[in-house]
Predict the structure.
Amino acid sequence: MSLKIQIIVAIVLILALVSIINMVRKEALDIRFALSWLAVGVIVLILDIFPSAMDWLVHLLGIELPVNMMFFFGFCFTLFLVFGLTTKVSRQAEQLKRLTQEMALLEKSLESAGEKEES
């Protein structure tokens, strides 16, 4: 990879990391989700700054091409994110169901209290 591309990638990654940190600071992004993006950004930045680390890692893992390793790690990261989001959606669905039931019980108790006052 040429030095020009490495510099461009590094600048884009740094801007993305600053943007993620800013979103966390403004509470537009939950820290639990931001941590995984920050970790990936830092790892890719390290691999961009030290391209020989990518070759060493590829050789260590026995993978033929560095691009295959990047696709594999990208796939694993995507699975990790999907699993995390699925568990979050499941918990929120359960909370929504519980809150809806509690609200219905409160409305019913308010209706019955209103009927008692009228009689």
Observations:
- Residues 1-49 form one domain.
- The chain has four helices and no strands.
- The chain has two domains: 1-49, 66-119.
